[in-house]
Prior knowledge:
Layout: H1 4-9, H2 13-35, H3 40-64, H4 81-106, H5 112-135, H6 139-152, E1 154-156, E2 163-165
Helix pairs in contact: 2-3, 4-5
Amino acid sequence: MMNSATSTESFQPWQFFALSGLAAATALVFLAVFVWHVDRPAAILLSLIVAAAAFAGYTAWRTAAPLAGDEGASTPVSVGGRTRAVLEREKLLTLRAIKDLEFDRAMGKVSEIDFAEMTGRLRSRAVGLIRQLDSTVSYRDAIDREVARRQVAFAPCAACGTGNDADAKFCKSCGAALGVR
């Protein structure tokens, strides 16, 4: 379930660029049509130019974000078995890369400075993947909690035993009147 706290925490950068592009396009079209008295095709062209500028800003952000060290935007969200399998495979590949890098250093193929930099990145990535794998909740647990919550909301009929909604006045199977709750 989404509330105001979770909806603001998951604000994505593309949403900022989309909203700012829409606001700028709206303002520009308003100015073009009502203030500058430009014809409508030109106003639509100005709106498309603003949308292209917003898209260019977003792509520039996507290009610069990894250089600034913002790796959180590219980490996959673990929601189920398939994504968990992808995370497990990525963890395995990262740990294998660390092992290969240690072997290359032992063979003299990698300098100590390069080794320290690359292993630091790989180890931090592996730690992030392990934490993400440890923090996930399986679908089975979520389903069991939802079923338990919904079972509390049902009341059985005294005549036939059919489960009815808690606020029902008559049984949905036999039509018998349910007690006042």
